[in-house]
Specification:
The protein is of the alpha/beta class and about 375 residues long. The chain has 2 domains: about 1-115 and about 315-375, Rossmann fold (3-Layer(aba) Sandwich); about 130-285, Up-down Bundle (Glutathione S-transferase Yfyf (Class Pi), Chain A, domain 2), CATH 1.20.1050. Helix content is about 40%, strand content about 25%. The strands form 3 sheets. It has a 6-stranded antiparallel sheet with strand order 2-1-4-5-6-7, covered by helices on one side. The longest helix is centred in the middle third of the chain and has 43 residues, at about 175-220. It is globular. About 40% of the residues are buried.
């Protein structure tokens, strides 16, 4: 799979821009802050219905505009598909496939597939557990588009349950209030069991791929560890059966209920879980060197990329200003990997950041204008 054409209208700092692409590696160059990352972000948005950057959805829309449009023509197994989304903060997101509207925007998930590695990804190793949970959930959405609805349902129920807990004012509700809490517990456990089980499956699926990717990038045979630490159970949950996991969560919610009412917050569930990463049996967050942390973060993305490619069409590999963060040896290893994928789109402030062996199609980026450079 590859992106043949990308069009942006009022997306971030681009009033209107179009980009013609081809298989193989392409490079977007230009000064920092000019809008290179925004191009990759737009492709990633089509693939996941979300942004890898923090901030409200309104930040995706150019200042002064009412909506943003991201449109792409992708080629899959020789067939050209046109997909576009209209991001209208406060009114939802609308989508079309081959110019025909679809009932829900999330129905376009799976048409575009991408793997994005960006400087922010160092937080996958160094950052808070939320970063690693987001990594698993984003990958799950790309594998199973229905996972997005499950995750959104869990987050909605969690917010409503927390509101009810806070309204209790530290006192155990009675009558209708207690019955309402029981209903929210049931809904939260059901959605939570689905999230929990899918995360466990993902870890088993990518474990060897991540370790192999780390060895490829770092040229080191250090063992990489990945362990899911649940806030619901202290031990091994066993097989990732969503019904059994939902039962475990339901039981934990009952045990935690007095403390949760006292504190006004849900204390256990997938929103409090952790993906523990280790190198040489030591916690990577605290013991990995800067270079090792970068290599491990990149290995997580490449492991996810390999899983998606093994299960279907290979995603577009998006590399956002990462060569500048790597030493020469790691740059060369990443360049070798970029040459093996069907399509890679790379951003860099200056072309000299890329290894000479990486022959790319060059584009110069300005707000509202992307031009292919002569001779590329």
């Amino acid at each position: 799979m590859y992106v043949e054409r990308l069009e942006l209208v009022d997306f971030r700092n681009h009033p209107e821009v179009a980009l013609e692409l081809s298989p193989g590696p392409s490079m977007l160059s230009g000064p920092n802050g000019i809008g290179k990352t925004n191009v990759l972000e737009a492709i990633g948005y089509l693939a996941t219905m979300g942004s890898h950057r923090a901030g409200p959805e309104s930040s995706l829309v150019r200042m002064g505009a009412q909506a943003a449009i991201v449109r792409a023509a992708v080629v899959r197994e020789g067939r050209r598909i046109l997909v576009d989304v209209e991001i209208r903060p406060g009114s939802g997101t609308r989508a079309r496939v081959n110019r025909a509207p679809v009932p829900r925007a999330r129905e376009v998930l799976g048409i575009v597939r991408s793997t994005l590695f960006a400087p922010e990804d160092l937080a996958l190793v160094r950052g808070d557990p939320e970063e690693r949970r987001r990594f698993l959930d984003t990958l799950a959405v790309q594998r199973l588009p229905r996972y997005l609805a499950i995750r959104q349902d869990y987050e909605r129920v969690l917010r409503q349950r927390n509101t009810l807990l806070r309204s209790a004012g530290g006192r155990m509700p009675a009558g209708a209030g207690l019955a309402t809490l029981d209903v929210w517990d049931e809904k939260l456990a059901g959605a939570g069991g689905e999230l929990w089980s899918e995360r466990l499956r993902l870890i088993e699926l990518i474990r060897e791929r991540v370790e192999r990717s780390y060895q490829d990038v770092a040229t080191a045979a250090d063992p990489v560890g990945m362990a899911y630490v649940s806030s619901v159970l202290s031990g091994d949950p066993g097989e990732p059966d969503p019904h059994a996991l939902a039962t475990s969560m339901r039981e934990r919610l009952l045990v935690d209920r007095p403390r949760e009412i006292e504190r006004g917050i849900t204390l256990s569930g997938p929103h409090r879980d952790e993906l523990m990463l280790s190198l040489r049996d030591l916690p990577a967050r605290t013991h990995a060197s800067h270079g090792e942390a970068w290599s491990l973060a990149l290995a997580l993305r490449l492991g996810a990329h390999r899983l998606l490619a093994d299960e279907g069409e290979e995603p577009v590999l998006l590399l956002d200003d990462v060569f500048a963060e790597l030493d020469r040896r790691r740059r060369e290893r990443l360049a070798e990997l970029a040459l093996t994928v069907e399509q890679a789109i790379i951003t860099a402030s200056v072309p000299d950041e890329l290894p000479a062996a990486l022959k790319v199609t060059m584009f110069h980026v300005e707000p509202g204008n992307i031009e292919r450079e002569n001779g590329s």
